[in-house]
Amino acid sequence: MRASLLPSLVTVLLVTVLVVSLAFAAPARASRDPVAVRALAAAGDARAMAELGSMYARGHQVRQDDDESRRWYQKAAEAGDPRAMTALGARFASGRGAARNDALAVEWYGKAAEAGDANAMFLLGSMYARGRGVERDGQKAHAWYLRAAEAGLPRAMTAVGAASSGAERAAWFRKAADASDACAMSNLALLYLDGDGVEKDMAQAIHWMQIAGECGDVASMVMLGDMHARGDAVRRDFDQAIRWYAMAVQRGNTGAMTSLGVLFADGKGTDPKPAEAFRLFMTAAKAGVPEAMLNLAGLYRDGRGVERSAEKAYYWSRNAARSMTDSSKRDAVVAFSQRLGRTLDAGARATAEADSDAWMARDKSATWPIAAAPVE
């Protein structure tokens, strides 16, 4: 399981860069009076134009307005401000405040990168990595990531590390982690867990994983929750498991919702909270998590946290059986669902199966993104 996390963490990094980059052009003086900033911008001050674009992007001291933000970023970019070029590129890449145009995004990222903006170098690398606006080219992607990393951008260091191996990978992750990149911290923790490029050191692994979790890395939160719930490499501590899972749940992680629901349902580390477990399972089940569907079926079967319903128990168990991709679990889930189905009369079973078929045929894109589920 751990070995698969390295590419997945970097994938999350690359998928989110375009959204995060929208704030890159915010100058250090973004707290100034917008009237004064507007006057400077109108007089042709490129820095003030970029600052005004940032204000509109964030709704800081002005009404949030994506169109106005893009307009001022464009003025600043055309006046030569590199960070405004980057922000404008991000607007075209995301379609926020402008029609999505990957070719224009690449053009503006390229101008900003050549002007020395490290964020633009990284974003240009991500466009080459995914073939957006340019032909996919892994070598060019790596070259831009490396330039951004050498320019001091922590998340670029993480990307370079992910493309490296052994001690070189560990060195890049350590450099990015020291620069407070949570993704790098999490990856570094995995290297210490496995002794990959560094001497195996469980204390260092836990150290970096905890820091990554506290810095907002969701994968680390889930792993720490799992480790404390199972007593894997740490003393079993359900209180700590609940704490880490709850942090991940607040960020919308459906796997953590399922795991936290199990602890609440079983009363581990807390008094039993079947109603709260039901809410967590339902949120994760609607997002397509088969284990959550299975647990939901159990609550409906037993009438725990929800009114007992054999029909809904069968419905959710059937969804779980048809959604389960883990072959080691599928046969047992199918057998469980079949047992529940046999408790129903023919009419009720047919209705539940028709409803299940309809749910499985739904537009699954409609279930994303998942709203964060508050933990009570």
How would you characterize this protein structure?
The protein is mainly alpha-helical. The protein has 3 domains: 8-162, Serine Threonine Protein Phosphatase 5, Tetratricopeptide repeat, CATH 1.25.40; 168-251, Serine Threonine Protein Phosphatase 5, Tetratricopeptide repeat; 253-376, Tetratricopeptide repeat domain (Serine Threonine Protein Phosphatase 5, Tetratricopeptide repeat), CATH 1.25.40. 69% of the residues lie in helices and 0% in strands. The protein has 20 helices and no strands. The protein has helices at residues 5-20, 34-42, 46-58, 66-78, 82-94, 102-114, 118-130, 138-150, 154-162, 166-178, 182-194, 202-214, 218-230, 238-250, 254-266, 274-286, 290-302, 310-323, 327-342, 346-360. Helix 15 (254-266) runs antiparallel to helix 16. The longest helix has 16 residues, at 5-20. The chain is globular. Residues 1-30 and 366-376 have low confidence and may be disordered.
Strand and helix layout:
Elements: H1 5-20, H2 34-42, H3 46-58, H4 66-78, H5 82-94, H6 102-114, H7 118-130, H8 138-150, H9 154-162, H10 166-178, H11 182-194, H12 202-214, H13 218-230, H14 238-250, H15 254-266, H16 274-286, H17 290-302, H18 310-323, H19 327-342, H20 346-360
